[in-house]
Design brief:
elongated, single chain, 45 helices, mainly alpha
Length: about 750
């Protein structure tokens, strides 16, 4: 029978000592940090980098100078593509332990990726000073020389690295890339082949050789290498994606689609594999096919929140906002703070015309992820559509700062530059857009616009030629170059370019509109109409074409068919505000103001936060003499957009004409003038407000400036004449009143002008 120790016995004392020692160990910071570090390593080995980050961070809380944890934390960030955070941690690791040459080289490669070639070169030389045979440092130095276009030094360093480790397949891949940079494809091919020979089971070597062959348009050779890579690992999505892209470039679309279907079959549980076909359709612009594919994916993988979010995005882009909202509700039900779900909710609200409501979910997303560039971008869209252009620009600038290659943020900033007329900003953002999307013609087009504004037509033409060269199937370069030719009074050259644009894209609104403008300028409206109707036959579902047709028919005074064409444009694009504005104008031209009012109401119901239908309906009511209702509409437009200069001007003039609150009218007129400083009618309203206030000197100077801007405005000259009369400037008054009468001898004030002239 086992004896039981009495209290205070040596046996019990041993147990107490053991527990005490274990407790002391568990409280020892060095032991605890090493446990966290070991746990981080286990997660890292499983490729669970987010969990590894938590463990390495826990170790660093206990010892911020624990360099191995800093280094590994940087590696985690590298694996997750979080380059800025990786750079910070690896820089700290290198500072803590300058002798950790592996950390130094990794940091150098990050600098290399950021195109900081000279700093990368310094690190490489420092490492080689400590370890002359460090192969990775030689490779880093070789790549830095290549980045600085020193081909000779680059090749020499790379050859030195290979001599130190002749059996490293990766070194030959690096050498091949340097040889490609040095424009020596024959030698590069040999190096790629050597990499495969040294490691025939290397997927990266096979892919590199296949990519080389694809670039040389040796498609059968490329296909052979990609197929070999797939055989090495049938579940590898990179290999299957490369094969699909090859088929697409070779014009074998069906085989590309089949390759992606095969990827899905080979790895049905791998999200990267089963999403590939949907992503392919999206990249190709086949949004409906992409949405159909993602519909299947979300039904087969209901717990894949990334796939669900992608599907919601596609539903938004295809205008199926109700379906998108339903799925987004499901996404947020699982996690109310799901950032992607909040951003999508903001997009849905923006799409529904509720931009002000969209700010709330986007703000919520940014509270959790303040560095989320996409959330900043859509917050900018929401603010812009709500009329707060200042905050919109700030959000877009932040998005571009966080992700300089975020093309949509750069496009938004281009729009800001265009609205401001800021040519320097336009050049900067155009250059950023070229860097973000080098295969797109947009950046070159916007830079050309800046050059044209500066009257540097040679530079503009060079950029437009480049736009056509980088995207020969895109109509944008052709239409913009056509516009330049039209400005140079070369309509025949412009016409040819517009026709080329339509050949590449039969749905190009800008190209057809340009051709119609040329025809109209030559007073050939029947020719323009025939051209439009021919293009409609090629693209019968293109709503903007019916708008162009309605405009031409209206100018030909064929108002009934013009109205039908405008209705057709709305039928095809019920969310397009321009269609409603056009239909209302045609109804007014027909004298059917009731139909116009109904159209404005349809527009308001479509987009309750859009101030334009209120402004236009108010203008119509004002002309009718229904000024009380017009006043309400102008005020509603200003409630929606307080800095809306057109609405401020119209309301101010209405108030002045009906002797309402003159002080309020003056404030509105001043606001309008700040927004539209070059509009003569706005200057007339402000001058008339000064006149009504008895400030005749200010009235005269303001009206004189407006008259220089709009010399053919009879009412403006009439007002200026009255102001001169109050200032006892009889000669000036007579001159302005006579000019007003000459410009509009049957105008509303003609009788008053004759009486005033008779009394002088």
């Amino acid at each position: 029978m086992q004896s039981i120790a009495r209290p205070g016995s040596p046996a019990k004392l041993g147990i107490v000592l053991l527990v005490t020692l274990l407790g002391a160990c568990s409280r020892n910071p060095n032991v605890r940090k090493q446990k966290y570090f070991a746990s981080g390593d286990r997660y890292f080995a499983k490729q669970d980098y987010k969990s590894a980050i938590i463990q390495y961070a826990n170790a660093l809380k206990l010892d911020p100078r624990y360099e191995p944890a800093r280094y590994q934390l940087g590696q985690c960030y590298l694996k997750l593509g979080m380059w800025q955070q990786a750079f910070i941690e690896l820089s700290r690791a290198a500072e803590l332990n300058p002798d950790d040459l592996k950390a130094q080289v990794t940091l150098g490669n990050l600098l290399l990726a950021g195109r900081e070639f000279e700093r990368a070169q310094e690190i490489a030389k420092t490492v080689l000073g400590k370890d002359p045979d460090n192969v990775d440092a030689h490779i880093l130095l070789a790549n830095s020389y290549a980045g600085l276009n020193n081909a000779e030094a680059s090749l020499k360093e790379m050859q030195g690295a290979i001599e130190l480790a002749p059996d490293r397949s990766g070194s030959y891949l690096n050498l091949a890339n340097i040889e490609m940079h040095a424009k020596d494809p024959a030698q590069a091919e040999e190096s790629f082949k050597k990499a495969v020979e040294l490691d025939p089971k290397s997927i990266s070597a096979r892919l590199a050789l296949g990519t080389f062959y694809a670039q040389q348009r040796r498609f059968p050779d490329a296909e052979q290498q990609f197929q070999a890579a797939i055989q090495l690992d049938p579940r590898n999505t990179v290999s299957r994606g490369a094969l699909a892209r090859l088929y697409l470039v070779a014009g074998r679309r069906e085989q590309a689609v089949q390759a992606l279907r095969d990827a899905k079959k080979a790895a049905p549980d791998d999200p990267a594999a089963y999403r590939m076909l949907g992503d392919f359709y999206f990249a190709a612009g086949d949004l409906n096919d992409a949405a159909s594919e993602y519909s299947v994916i979300t039904s087969e993988h209901p717990k894949d929140t990334v796939a669900k979010a992608n599907y919601i995005q596609l539903l938004i882009m295809t205008g199926k906002l109700d379906d998108a909202a339903k799925l987004d509700d499901e996404l947020l039900k699982g996690n109310a703070k799901e950032v992607r779900g909040l951003i999508l909710r903001g997009q849905i609200l923006i799409g529904r015309g509720k931009a002000s409501d969209a700010v709330e979910p986007l703000d919520a997303a940014l509270r959790d992820e303040p560095d989320n560039a996409l959330a900043h971008y859509y917050a900018g869209v929401a603010f812009s559509q709500s009329g707060d252009e200042g905050r919109a620009e700030s959000e877009w600038q932040e998005a571009a700062r966080l992700q300089p290659r975020m093309a949509q943020a750069q496009r938004a900033l281009v729009g800001v530059a265009l609205r401001k007329g800021n040519t320097d900003m336009l050049v900067r953002t155009a250059n950023a857009l070229i860097a973000a999307a080098p295969g797109s013609p947009e950046g070159y087009v916007y830079r050309a616009m800046a050059s044209a504004t500066r009257q540097d037509y040679k530079a503009a033409e060079a950029d437009l030629d480049q736009a056509i060269q980088v995207a020969p199937q895109n109509p944008l370069g052709y239409t913009k170059l056509a516009g330049l030719r039209f400005r140079e009074k070369r309509p025949q050259d412009a016409e040819k370019l517009f026709e080329q644009a339509l050949e590449h894209d039969p749905r190009s609104f800008e190209a057809l509109d340009g051709l119609v403008t040329i025809d109209a300028g030559e007073k050939q409206l029947p020719k323009a109409l025939a051209r439009i109707q021919q293009q409609i036959q090629k693209a019968p579902d293109c709503a903007p074409f019916y708008r162009i047709e309605a405009g031409v028919l209206g100018n030909m005074n064929q108002l009934a068919p013009a109205r039908q064409a405008a209705e057709k444009s709305i039928e095809l694009a019920p969310n397009d505000a321009e269609g409603y504005a056009l239909l209302a104008r045609i109804a007014i031209a027909q004298g059917d103001n009731a139909a116009a009012a109904n159209t404005y109401q349809r527009w308001i119901q479509l987009s309750a936060n859009d101030p334009r239908p209120y402004l236009l309906r108010g203008t119509m009511l004002d002309v009718e003499g229904n000024w009380e209702q017009a006043r309400q509409d102008y005020q509603k437009a200003l409630d929606l957009k307080p800095d809306f200069p057109q609405a401020a001007n119209n309301l101010a003039y209405l108030m002045l004409q009906h002797n309402l609150d003159t002080d309020a009218a003056l404030a509105l007129a001043q606001k309008a003038r700040r927004g539209l400083p070059d509009q003569p009618t706005v200057g007339d309203t402000l001058g008339w407000a000064y006149y009504k206030k008895g400030s005749y000197g200010l009235a005269a100077s303001t009206l004189a400036e407006a008259a220089r801007q709009g010399p053919n405005d009879a009412e403006l000259h009439y007002h200026l004449g009255l102001a001169y009369e109050k200032l006892n400037n009889a000669r000036g008054a007579k001159s302005e009143l006579e000019l007003a009468l000459k410009l509009d001898p049957k105008g509303a004030h003609a009788g008053e002008i004759r009486d005033a002239l008779a009394n002088q």
